[in-house]
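Internal QA ticket QA-208
Title: Verify multi-chain structure generation after dependency bump
Assignee: T.L.

Test input:
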Amino acid sequence: MKSQIPVVLLACGSFNPITNMHLRLFEVARDHLHQTGIYQVIQGIISPVSDHYRKKDLVASHHRVAMARLALQTSDWIRVDPWESEQAQWMETVKVLRHHHQELLRSSPPMEAQNAGKAPTAPAAVPELKLLCGADILKTFHTPNLWKDVHIREIVEKFGLVCVSRAGHDPKEYILDLPILRQYQHNIYLAQEPVQNEISATYIRRALSQGQSVKYLLPDAVIAYIKHHRLYTMDSSWKDRSSQRSKGNTS
Amino acid sequence: MFRSFCGIQNLDSKGGARAFHLDQRLQILTMDKSEKTDVVLLACGSFNPITNMHLRLFELARDFMNGTGKYRVIKGIISPVGDAYKKKGLIPAHHRIIMAELATKNSNWVEVDTWESLQKEWVETAKVLRHHQEKLEASNCDHQQNSPVLERSGRKRKWTEQRQNSSQKKSLEATPKGVPKVKLLCGADLLESFGVPNLWKSEDITQIVADYGLICITRAGSDAQKFIYESDVLWKHQSNIYLVNEWITNDISSTKIRRALRRGQSIRYLVPDLVQEYIEKHNLYSSESEDRNAGIVLAPLQRNTAEAKP
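Actual output:
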């Protein structure tokens, strides 16, 4: 039997807060890659963006990391990595990919040391690191100046994308309309989420600030954390907005 | 004008929404507790299996009803249908009950009731509503009999009296507020199923909307509104039909869950973890289970067409 290529999925984003939909992305992507028969997904990594991203209503990264950790308590293959959030400045996605790729190379067992003197067996393949995202991210590649062209190229050429489609977005169109994506479309995997489940974090934050229930949209442990630390309350969102206005920041 | 509150989120400006909500909160706080009607939400269905979407219905309905300031939702009841319903793909009730219980383990207000599923024959929804309403009335009577000190406090106190009598606050809170009212909680699909020939008795539909009330969680309010408009009996009782908008497109149907399971796809984060584990452990859903009751007429169709025959 042909051995399968091990894959690690990396998802970057605000995770402000993490929701069941984020978690679903991983499950759907893994199912999809396994269905190809070529890949074996061995790990999922959630990498919350740093506070320096300065997105509106972004709560402190240590909270977002903690919430992701709570959400993943019951997952045996997905973990959260705080590296990106701990950097002194905002990191482009491609740099996060490079970092994690380095980490994977570092942690791969060296085969030579194990088989001293004997004929080397087939080396364990270094896992391929792929960027996991919603298909709407493909659309953002078209936005001028949002991504550097060389970065897009590196992402699709060197790493690869797994895009989970959301209702209302036709991902193939976004690929074919951009030459760089068209060229590497073989390295872009489109997974279909059959269950429309559009739990946006924006909706969650608004519901929370209005005292509405978000139970069953995100894990109970995350809800408990949010309540305990009084995150996303009406007062906290006012505070963010006024402080951003005074700093002259745009969202 | 029937009630179709579109949710506070629908207002244009964020400032407007916030101000509106604050006004409403003030109104609710100043309202005498005993003026509100206690409500129990009852959801009937196959729950084959129960999903996060079913559970969301309760949360959305409670927020909505409490938000009107007139109601206080005190309990949610999940009533899985009995096996005699004979729906295709329906697995044995005891599994469906257990899954619902696992799903509501972490809820402090939603519970599972087995009465309907234990009946030998299929039970019409109107009868299930009646059963639960009568049960509430019976326990309310017991409550009153056991607390003689409450017997005299039937009349509502005036606003000013209450404020001055803070020492009597305790007995005021113990004043029976009247029997809680059971209301049917459902999605738009159930509302629209009223139109399926022979699925519902027309007198049952009338009874449900006239005597109990419906809280319908809908994705696009307009289809449900149109359906109500086109039905004379629903139109007549529109004040007893509450349409609640679900802003998140939440399409986690049991059918899709079963399909995913047959295809070896993950259902994690679509159903509570304990439910997913239980399904996996007992291998509940397969092509074989999906074929159960194949070719058998659904119980309500059977019953209503049989009774229609002279």
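Spot checks passed. Chain A has one domain: 5-107+125-197.
Status: verified.
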